[in-house]
Amino acid sequence: MQFVKDDRTAASLVEFNYLTPEQKWRYLQAYWTKASNFYGVKQQLIVSDEETKTQINKLKLKPNPHLRRIINLKDWRWKLDPKMQGVREGYFKHDYADDSWEKVITPHNVNYTPPDPVQFGRIDAPWFNFPSLDRPTTIYLGEYALWYRTSAPLTKEEIQGKRAFINFESCSIKTTVWVDEWPVILEHFGVYPFEMEITEELLKSNHEDKRLCLEIVSTPSNTPDVFYNCLEYAYVDKRGDKMLECPDLNWGGINGTVELILTSPVYIKNLFIYTKTIEENRAILNVELEVENTTTDLSQVTIDLDVSRWFPSESSGEAKFTFQVHASPLTTTIVKEEISLSNPVLWEPWNPHLYLVHATLTDNTGPRDDLYETFGVRTLKSKDGAFLLNGKVITLSATHDQGVYPNTSATCPGDYWIVQDILLHKALGMVAARYPSDNRVHYRRIAEYADQMGLMLIWEGYCSLWSQNPNIEDLATRDIPRLIRDLRNHPSIIVWVLGDEAFYYAPAASIYHNKRSRYVRLVHDLATQADPSRLIVPVGHWVEDLVQMIEKFIGQGLSVSEARKKCLEMLPVFNSPNVYWAIHSLPSGTDTNPVYATIGKYQRILCGAGKPVTFDEFACEGMPNWDLCKGEWWYKRWTINPIYPSGKKFLEPTLIGRELTTDDWQVSQAYQASVYWRILSYIRESGAFAGFSNCFLRDGYNYPSGLVDARGRGKLAFFLFKNLLGRFFISAMHGNYLFKRETQLSITISNNGPALKGGKLKVKITNEKETVVEEKTVEGLTANQGLTHAFNYALNNLPPDLYTAEYYLHDENGKELGRSLEMFYVE
Asked: CB-based contacts of 18: which residues, under 8 Å, 6+ apart?
């Protein structure tokens, strides 16, 4: 028997929002006491330091090629140039005396903000316009330079007959590069991969000790996205009239690797391997090869691919493939082939297996160039409103991981924080993360580690939110293909997200609808061309435009299905086969809408149309334990933060019953857990959504709050989340917090695994004084996958009070399979 409510907003349903302030406060105080004990909340690191370090030691590095020479430029001398005098002082000169500069190893980031910003116009960015949200805010801009110098010992004989390139993963934000005083890159703007051939400059240099010098200009601002910086916070004291006590979080420098590459004049420019289909005992893989011929002669070359298993264990000689390539002169020749891999070991989050391919280019003189790439055999597709991983339906459970690490660059965090984040996801039972997201920009190491640790990534590594650089379309056209090409062999990346709510700071204005719509079509096409194998979310929360249009036609008398069909015909990009619909919503978070009303609206309008729909970015209050973290800078001003400076004083009395102080951290955590219970129970019981992501995993800018604090210590919601993501979830509330005594509770079992037969369900109900008023066990239960009605429970014997229901599900042998706790009023 299936239990499905037709109308979650019916008058009989009393959600938490509709309780009186007194009832809310009483409920949350009791909920903390009961739930923290039930879920075993511990005020300590979820993932121990030892576990993190052990995992780091298990990670493997891709081998270096044999023929191609890659010089990883890690060791640099560095100097801050706050007044940008470096060019005048000759920092770029070969013989400049840099002995006094500090030695650093890249990646290297600096948190520095010039003390004297200038006014740089005004902008309509309402989230920052505090206290008046209806007026433009003044842009404040600072500028400073970071200088880096290194050397690469190279003789002319080593360079002769070669081609040399310098390759950057990411720099913040304008980069000028000199090679022995030759400017080879002039003010490259942006934080995504770029490279330049420097063969001529190296050959003309008379120095065997080649000097490379970088000037990297950073542009901290109170509206950073205008300057293509992504989500960096600076000059928070200049966002409106009220002083905000928060440090400037502006990070600049070399965000990733810098490599000097020497190879042959005819070389492998790019290799991309992805899975087309997985069949019984074999996988069909697509291979895309690019061969660059920099000579004036036609070159007949052979490409050999040697495929072997690599992670977690290695085995050589898995398969070999050979392609003949006619490389036209002075151009790039593209080769597309299909290959077959017998008995492949698949990549899955719970069992990540990687292959290693060694590609070798040979001409009539012998082997000339080679490279290594890792890849995984896996497919992630959408069908009939669901996600299919390797052909099997999977729920895309994720967090939006946007936290700020203590005293650490969010742009290129150290291995400890990356690994701890991934282990936290796995401890939760999550299979995915919207990551790197906003702050982290472009950091390949995240994908490399997720490949080996088994976490799927919804790669939100392009652009940030709301206001955008005026040249964003030109920048996207240049940078999105480079970003994708740099990362597309990583099986952990399953989705490209090309902007988080871009142009979404004024959704009611038609001009921004137009800008966003044009941007959506552009980035969708760019991503599809660069990588046809993955799903795409062109812009975070992009489907809200579709929802608004559908609602408009419903208001004109069309049915939901008629309105949806009409809108998809008008805006076909929403129906593109490689996109899905991701909603950002914060019911009972930064808005006061009830959870069931909000989620029900999106289910009614979007679900059931054949597209996967994910419910993302739900979040709310959830303070940390102040005994453990008070005094650390990111918690010094919980009531005010740079991203949401005006909301708490308004929201807390409305949503929680009164304004909170830091002494109320336990009530705050109880509220967060209660909201997440409402959202996740709806998602589980409805079966309508293909995935979700909460916002956030880790505390960052204080609002919204994470499931763990900034150090990684769990809150009540973390343990609740872990429980709700388990195989079984038992509930009788279904969104209702207040029942009449004549009501019968319908107790259901949600099962996201194989069918259970012969199960035993024990129910224990206690009153507010913790007196047991009922214990009941039902045996012989069958719980198929999905939602199953277990039995009804009459409330007419319960006097008015606040009750706790504990559910314990066992198999026929008495082994516990799942447990749930919920609280409700009886009036």
From this structure: 594, 737, 738
User: Model pTM?
Assistant: 0.95
Alpha-carbon distance 482 to 471, whole Å?
17
CA distances in angstroms from 733 to 760, 809, 826, listed in the order given: 20, 17, 12
Query: pLDDT tens digit string along 565-596?
Result: 999 999 999 999 999 999 999 898 877 889 99
What is the rounded distance in angstroms from the CA atom of residue 255 to the CA atom of residue 114?
20
From the CB of residue 96, how many other CB atoms can be counted at a distance below 10 Å? 17
- Residues 151/209, Cβ–Cβ less than 8 Å: yes
Q: Which residues contact 632 (CB under 8 A, 6 or more apart)?
A: 406, 710
- Alpha-carbon distance of 729 to 749, in angstroms, equals 6
d(CA 88, CA 103): 22
The amino acid that residue 20 corresponds to is T
Percent of the chain as helix, strand, coil, to the nearest 5: 25, 35, 40
Highest mean pLDDT (candidates 237-241, 464-468, 524-528): 524-528
Query: Using an 8 Å Cβ cutoff, are 716 and 669 in contact?
Result: yes
Which two tokens mark 154? 């190279």
> Rounded to 5 degrees, what angle do the CA atoms 450, 581, 288 make?
50
Query: What is d(CA 194, CA 179) in angstroms, rounded to the nearest whole number?
Result: 16
Largest CA distance in the chain: 95
Which residue in 652, 656, 566 sits closest to 609, CA to CA? 566
- Sign of the Cα torsion 750, 754, 757, 762 reads negative
762-810 pLDDT, tens digit per residue, is 999 999 999 999 999 999 999 999 999 999 999 999 999 999 999 999 9
Lookup: tokens for 774: 């009922």
CB 65 within 8 A of CB 371: yes
Q: What is the DSSP letter of 191?
A: S
Q: Give me the phi and psi of 54, to 5 degrees please.
A: -60, -40
3-state secondary structure of 635: helix
Distance CA 93, CA 77 (A): 14
* 207 Cβ contact list (under 8 Å, min separation 6): 94, 180
User: Considering only CA atoms, which of 215, 229, 253, 218 is closest in space to residue 85?
Assistant: 215
Distance CA 379, CA 694 (A): 24
The secondary structure of residue 507, as a DSSP letter, is: T
Q: How far apart are CA 424 and CA 727, in angstroms?
A: 19
Name the residue among 215, 78, 84 with its Cα closest to residue 142: 84
Q: How far is CA 448 from CA 49, 600, 753, in A?
A: 21, 38, 30
Q: Residue 704 burial (CB < 10 Å; 0-12/13-18/19+)? A: buried
Contacts of 474 (CB under 8 A, 6+ apart): none
Element holding 286 (H helix, E strand): strand 282-293
Both tokens of 623, joined, read 């303070």
- C-alpha 587/C-alpha 593 separation (Å) is 5
Encoding tokens for residue 349?
């989050």
Tokens of 567: 């809108």
Nearest CA to 687 out of 769, 745, 752, 774 is that of 752
Q: How confident is the model at residue 9 (pLDDT cuts 50, 70, 90)?
A: very low
Q: Round to whole Å and give the CA distance between 150 and 184.
A: 15
Alpha-carbon distance of 338 to 344, in angstroms, equals 15
